[in-house]
Amino acid sequence: MKKRFGAILGILMIAVILAACSGSGGDSANAGSEGEPTELLMWNLFAAGDAKFMQNIVDEFNESQDEYVVENVTQENSEYYTKLITSIGAGKGPDIAISHTNVLPELVSQGLVTELNSLAEEVGVEWNEYNENILDATIYNDLHYAVPMDTHPQIMYINNDIVEEVGLLNEDGTIQMEQSPEGFIDFFQTIKEEHPNEVLPLASSSSGTNPYWLWWGFYNQLGGEKLLSDNLENPTYEIDYEKAVKAANFVKGLYHENEIIRLNVSDYYPDFQSGNAAAIIAGVWATGTWESTEGLNFTPMPIPNIFGEKGAWANSHTFVLPYSENADQHTQEGALKFMDFAADKGAMWAQAGHIPAKTTVIESEGFKEIPYRSQYAEVAEYADFVDRNVHARGVESIVIRHLDTVWSGDTSAEDAFDKIEAEVKKLIGE
After folding, report:
1. 126 with 193, same domain?
2. In the chain, helix, strand, coil percent, each to 5?
3. Signal peptide span per the entry (predicted)?
4. Does the model's pTM come out above 0.90?
5. What is the extent of the structural domain holding 11?
6. Which of the residues 88, 196, 302, 408 has the least number of beta carbons within 10 Å of its own beta carbon?
């Protein structure tokens, strides 16, 4: 482990955070007076539907008991992690915080979050109720550092009317696509031939995270798995070059050789929402947008497994217990009780499109009654999270930047990964 606060705490940042933040840091200062509930301050980074559903869960927890009361505070998304890291380091962090799985390694390495093993035993958290694949992404050195709330993978949505019109929709709602690279291309080429001008075969952006996520899923389907070795602080570069290039060339072909996805598109949701695209690749959080769109007849499904192994990019929202030097046992127990309670309310959270982290929720009637979600819940079993090390976000930024030049046609996949290797090795000090 690195020293607990390291270089993240410049003098100026400390001054700013001490003046601006009012976190409790999990100490006894927020314990209620006799007969009063203990206040638990939670920070989140949610917006729109996510924010509403989380507040509903908080309200239900507060109403379910009188020992604790959670104050749910939404922070600006773009500044969230900078503020969270700085606040915890200054001893002004919240009692509960949200962390994406790909950021968790940084928090663990810097000692900014508390391991939950012993506390979970006291509270009675049953880890076997959680999906093993999702839960594994929160464990370091056999210690639990987060309570996962969900996973939110990239999936595919189809416009049922368009796909049925070209004869590619089965009676059970599945699509007629051979599970191979050729079958994937043939499916969309058929749509393109039947609707040469008025309908887009497949909607996606041509730069940024969405095509990178698609590449990551195909890379994992090919058996690529990781970019770096499984070491929290000192990973080595271990990309499978041939598989990385093969996946990149396949995605590139969707833009160029096969012309299935349009180039120079950033805002691609309107194409599908307006009924002008036969399919779209997007995160599960888009489900709520489509189901609230009048007249849009759609079906969500996992991205087809065309390279032999199941695989799809995914991330997760998790709850973490920020480190506090003067931690109060009662406060921390309450924080963990809320986290487990919230995970139990996964069916409420699934209304935002996410897949609940608890298998007990997935198997519940309440979840099964929610339209669409069960049609892609299986992805949680094999969702592919990014590498679990402190460089994850930096590596992702490098890979996206270079892959963008592949999608645009300015660089070959081989040249891009040669440059990626050089930059990543420099980043990790190899």
Report:
1. no
2. 45, 15, 40
3. 1-19
4. yes
5. 7-149+317-357
6. 196
